[in-house]
């Protein structure tokens, strides 16, 4: 049976969801919260955005499934569990979500590339980097609309230093290059497009299951060629150590210096 579906117990799923969320929040803020400073956790814009993503995604997918399956409580139970599991890069599953339809599958596809908060146990790109990127892009668009205005990108009410958004954009660039390279590498072994792309995303973001019949929640990576497995292992290390620290080791000049 699929992952934690063997328990078939809603209480177990609720406990897992709680700890998946806790593990994906900034641990430093959780320590402050445990010391009695509860406002610090919920004042953080990253935490609020992370929780909003969970609520909105769960609501949308639940309504979609309810309109197609007619069982609201079951739709809510399964949708919330898989939204949290994939967003937090935990990878637990209770059913084959790939058969729900194209719309929820597309939402899961984007959730797999977000991840949790910085300073947490989760993998993925992290909510913080998306917020920095959107803030900078918003400022640039405002600058184009009003060339004589002064628009300063901010995060949590503070100005974003140039070094921070340069680091974030470098990260996104390396992520996209790694994703394209790993997808092409997996396709070299005659894997179909969905398996290659979702396998690359799953490895780089350390999620677990991918999409499709082969590596989806109802399948395993066991049948993949050995070469593809080596590529996926490299992708998992690359994603977990966050690209720069691994890719710099492949530059000959680094060893000469």
What does this structure look like?
By secondary structure, this protein is an all-alpha fold. The chain has twelve helices and two strands. It has helices spanning 10-23, 27-34, 38-43, 45-69, 72-87, 102-111, 127-145, 162-187, 193-204, 226-240, 244-247, 252-256; strands at residues 154-155, 158-159. A hairpin with a 2-residue loop joins strand 1 (154-155) and strand 2 (158-159). It is globular and about 55 Å long. It starts with 9 loop residues before the first helix and ends with a helix.
In short:
The protein is an all-alpha fold and 257 residues long. It has twelve helices and two strands. It has helices spanning 10-23, 27-34, 38-43, 45-69, 72-87, 102-111, 127-145, 162-187, 193-204, 226-240, 244-247, 252-256, and strands spanning 154-155, 158-159.
Topology:
Elements lengths: L9 H14 L3 H8 L3 H6 L1 H25 L2 H16 L14 H10 L15 H19 L8 E2 L2 E2 L2 H26 L5 H12 L21 H15 L3 H4 L4 H5 L1
Antiparallel strand pairs: 1-2
Helix pairs in contact: 1-5, 4-5, 7-8, 8-9, 8-10, 9-10
What is Rg? Answer: 20 Å
* Percent range for β-strand residues: under 5%
> Main β-sheet, in a few words?
2 strands, antiparallel
Helical residue percent band: 55-70%
Q: Distance between the terminal alpha carbons, to the nearest Å?
A: 52 Å
Q: How many strands appear in the DSSP assignment?
A: 2
SSE series: HHHHHHHEEHHHHH
Which features characterize this protein?
257 residues; mainly alpha; two-stranded antiparallel sheet; 12 helices; globular
